Fold:
Amino acid sequence: MAYATEIRAQKAGFAGFFEGLKVRFARQMLIRETIKELNALTSRELADLGLHRSQITGIAIAAANERFGAL
Structure:
């Protein structure tokens, strides 16, 4: 069963379409940048943060969900 955690007012027509594209693009860019920055760290630096390399993608997606909401 699905639950709505956030309800957003959506614009109709082309304005809503392009606004949605803009948000999706910004979300994807945040994910890519977060992955890039975390991959630049050494394994030791990640361990100091309490992270493992296998968690990087999940962390990036969680950061995007926190900022833009889950899709």
Remarks:
- The chain is about 65% helix and 0% strand.
- The chain has one domain: 19-68.
- The chain has a mean pLDDT of 87.
